[in-house]
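Researcher: Quick one. two chains, 436 residues in total.
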Amino acid sequence: MNLSYRLRLLVVVLSIGVLAGGGFLFKQLLLPDSFGVYGPYRADAIAEAALVPIRHGTNTSCFKCHPYEAKNHKKGRHQTISCEFCHGTYADHVADSKKIGTLPVKKEKEITTLCLRCHNTEIKARKEEVIKTVAMPNHLKDQNVKLTHNCNQCHYVHAPLKYIIRAKQITGLMEAGS
Amino acid sequence: MMDRRSFVKKVLNGTIAGSLYLVWPMGGDSLEIPEEIPGIKGKDYDIHHQEFAFIVDITQCIGCGSCCVADKREYNVPDGNYRTWVERYVKGFSDQIYVDSPHGGLDGYQHPRTDIDEKIRDTFFVPKLCNMCKEAPCVQVCPVGATFISPDGFVLMDEKRCVGCAYCIQACPYSVRFLNPVTKVAEKCTWCYHRVRKGLLPACVEVCPTGARKFGSMKDETSEVYKILKGPGVLTVLRKEMGTFPALYYKGARREVI
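Model:
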């Protein structure tokens, strides 16, 4: 009686031990490394997320090799615009300090389309305090230029008012209200 | 072999100087990283003592879509999926709301909406991205622990662990997740975690021309987001009633914005 009770107890304890130990081993096998360091996830995934290659530089990265554009861009009204928005990403142009590709330069009608992405009065959600907008083709008519003109024929895209201001100084013309 | 005379001539012409410029290393990393978020570059990153905030100023957004373009390029996001996008809200005098987002704002907004008959009362753009919830529903539902909140407050994806069950995509109240058709795993905006860890601003903040998107560290008392969050301006979060406690705040968001 007593013996069979002890035997049964031993069997129960042993089986619990085997199940728990087996379960623990099984869990160790299935769980990836670093799982549970910070929580129920793989802590290494954070380091992996931090290692994704950077594709966009900053304007400073571009200005390093393009001093002429830098000089004008920094002074003009377009100084807050990212070079890479119009020209493409840094990673497509430079790798390991070497030029690996040529970024496309927008031409003709593409430029007008690009300008009107921001400067189109028709989109009423743009506030005057934030951005100066123009209506096309009214702007061209007002300025007495051909309707086929592209924006960059008067506005230098990096500093849009640079030559406009210069021209006004030379001709002595003043804009109404100024 | 080049004689001295022609060598000097070429140097003065710039043909050799130019080639030397290409050969000489520019020193250090290829990408000279300026410090945009102070206190990260070149220092030990203490993952437990970081807090970041993102503020979207709707009153500044002009709907140019620069952020969407930058985001697509930074991650090569497949066509038809968006990690971030810009919505156009139009509110009529009958309080009817019209929302559209053609191509997620990738091509910008070149034309006004023509399908609205009534008089328009208010119109504005709303950029959308991951809200980085402190109580993230997507993390809660993930059956394999493939998405998680990192100790520095980012909701990130473990692409190696994701099984593509799309449960998180259903759970996200802000619809910022999608199943990548190429890798077949869930993908989401990370606030450019890889850039932040190097002290750079997220790509969308980097390219925003009007400063409608602001990002910064809450541990840095000089950062713009710290000053805004400390100040009296009204900031709102999206779907507050869901109790997700986002770290993305909106300035100037009308009550209709969800």
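The longest helix of chain A spans residues 2-30.
Researcher: Thanks, that's what I needed.
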